[in-house]
């Protein structure tokens, strides 16, 4: 039993050590700066990995909006206090539209059989997004 306890303690120490070594992300830096700033300021919310959570809210007002994983606001995603938002869907749709525009532009720029290439690129993108690729 003592050996198991020692192994668990050593494993935990290494796991905690790894977490401490990771440099702060932009979200964590922004959060720390806001927490040390003025009262009532917007404080970013970061996930376990230090990335921005899809929904960000201004704690003092209750206004919320959606952001990308890099913290960029998704246009048209503002919600008033007490209104539910669906940020993961908005970001997914925004990224899908951007991806389709990029793929269409690429297919036509490369010439040749553009529709076949476009179809292949869209199928590959869909498979990758669904985790099948």
Question: Could you name the key traits of this structure?
Answer:
133 residues; mainly alpha; Invariant Chain, Chain I; two-stranded antiparallel sheet; 4 helices; 5% strand; repeat
Structure description:
Helices cover 53% and strands 5% of the residues. It is elongated. The protein is mainly alpha-helical. Helix 3 (87-110) packs antiparallel against helix 4 (114-129). 8% of the residues are buried. Strands 1-2 form a two-stranded antiparallel sheet. It folds into 2 domains: 25-85, Thyroglobulin type-1 (Invariant Chain, Chain I); 86-133. It is found in: Secreted. Residues 24-87 form the Thyroglobulin type-1 domain. One of its GO terms (biological process) is cell-matrix adhesion.
In round numbers, the mean pLDDT is 76
Number of strands: 2
Shape: elongated
Continuous helix count: 4
């Amino acid at each position: 039993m003592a050996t198991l306890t020692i192994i668990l303690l050593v494993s935990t120490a290494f796991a905690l050590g790894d977490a401490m070594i990771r440099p702060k992300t932009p979200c964590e830096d922004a959060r720390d700066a806001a927490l040390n700033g003025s009262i009532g300021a917007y404080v970013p919310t970061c996930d376990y990995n230090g990335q921005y959570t899809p929904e960000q809210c201004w704690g003092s007002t209750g206004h919320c909006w959606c952001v990308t994983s890099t913290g960029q606001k998704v246009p048209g995603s503002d919600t008033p206090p007490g209104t539910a938002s669906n940020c993961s869907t908005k970001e997914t749709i925004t990224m899908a539209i951007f991806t389709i525009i990029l793929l269409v532009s690429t297919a036509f720029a490369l010439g040749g059989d553009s529709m076949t290439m476009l179809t292949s690129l869209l199928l590959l993108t869909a498979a990758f997004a669904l985790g099948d690729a």
